[in-house]
Amino acid sequence: MKRVRTLLAGALLVGLGALAGCTVAEPEEEAPAPDPAPGERWQPRPGTGWQWQLTGRLDTSVKVPVYDVDGFNTTKEQVARLRKDGRKTICYVSTGAWEDFRPDADAFPKQLLGAGNGWKGERWLDIRRLDSLEPLMGKRFDMCRDKGFDAVEPDNMDGYLNTSGFPLTAADQLKYNRLIAKLAHDRGLSVGLKNDLEQIPELVGDFDFAVNEQCAQYQECERLTPFVKAGKAVFHVEYELPTSRFCAATGALKLSSMRKKYELGPWREACPRP
């Protein structure tokens, strides 16, 4: 996994307990995300503003339609508060790597655990073992649904491109990623494809939006255009580039772009809205 997700996996243990914080002020309120028609899933559109916060005290004051927050550490009450304020909510969970700091860590059989993925307490999962992983991920998505989330952001969706400790293939990854999408959809949740740019042509029809890290830095943003052409949002962040280096280009591509710090706390610097 070449993208940076959090500064330290252990930082996710920091509770999102208080509904206060400090971010860069937004110039104006964005319109709330529209509710889906009865029986349909929420479908974020290209250019939809968002906030991505996985660590620190949850700041609910950012004036954007979408919040992407940690599924385990965010409470049902916090999700309800965001929904009351007109925000759609995305439930961050790792689906491709085991994390020793999660409350369900002991439920994962040891034979599923592979090499470390570069983050403390995390190891790649053997995504070929669908019989074992399907119920485990189903329970995580049940948690997201029961807390009132609208969507899921499954992380570590490209183990086949990394030294996982298993002989994973592109076909293995496609099969697993499609299972993840189905598990979300079966629960009425939208689901995003995290990174995995190489498989976008095969997976754009299975996912409702994309989440990408650092496509501008790696000069890859145009590879996300299939989502935009399909009317689906691309939620994008950069960490190392100033906004002056990417906002014009990603805005032209209709990506929902902002700059974040590596720890993914409340701070954000959003690209100007067109």
From TrEMBL:
<keyword id="KW-0732">Signal</keyword>
<dbReference type="InterPro" id="IPR004352">
    <property type="entry name" value="GH114_TIM-barrel"/>
</dbReference>
<dbReference type="InterPro" id="IPR017853">
    <property type="entry name" value="GH"/>
</dbReference>
<feature type="domain" description="Glycoside-hydrolase family GH114 TIM-barrel">
    <location>
        <begin position="50"/>
        <end position="266"/>
    </location>
</feature>
<dbReference type="Pfam" id="PF03537">
    <property type="entry name" value="Glyco_hydro_114"/>
</dbReference>
<feature type="region of interest" description="Disordered">
    <location>
        <begin position="27"/>
        <end position="47"/>
    </location>
</feature>
<protein>
    <submittedName>
        <fullName>Endo alpha-1,4 polygalactosaminidase</fullName>
    </submittedName>
</protein>
<feature type="signal peptide">
    <location>
        <begin position="1"/>
        <end position="20"/>
    </location>
</feature>
<dbReference type="InterPro" id="IPR013785">
    <property type="entry name" value="Aldolase_TIM"/>
</dbReference>
